[in-house]
What does this fold into?
Amino acid sequence: MKVAPSPTVAQALANVPITFGIRDTRPDPTMVGKYEDDGFVVRTTDNVAQYCSNRFGDMLRGAGARLTEAPQAILAADLVEYRVDEGSTFAGVVRIRMTVRRAGQPDWSKDYEGTAKKWGKTHNPDNFNDALSNSLLDVTTNILHDEEFGHALMYGGSPAPVPGAPMAPGPAPMAPGVQPTAGR
It folds into this structure.
């Protein structure tokens, strides 16, 4: 599935090689849903974090991410919620806490949520899977449309530069052999 990123995110993905990983931080990594009528818990033996990482990686690649070069930024994603509640519909929700790390910059973090609803035959695994997949697509779309996320990829957790504002000068050059000293 291809997701078109916002212009800011597209520019960041085009200019900043990244690496990423998804860590499953849910209290019970086997739980993927529940039936509202009787409270039955739906579980999986699959590695949910690996599945989400593969799908998220595919969508990042489709959005223009540079994943094969030496990274300038690290995307560390915590899978906080990944489930479907079946009641009158199959209601999926995926929550991810995204952290962007760039050397020399403060970390930037933000929580994102994706949801999906599906009608269908009760207790149907395909309906569960569709609701989960569509929720993952929705959360990825929300991330790739977030201007703050694009800024964090470009600049880390530092404030965005103001267009047209003069840049602060860097440190003054030193003569060869001169060492900086702490305030006297």
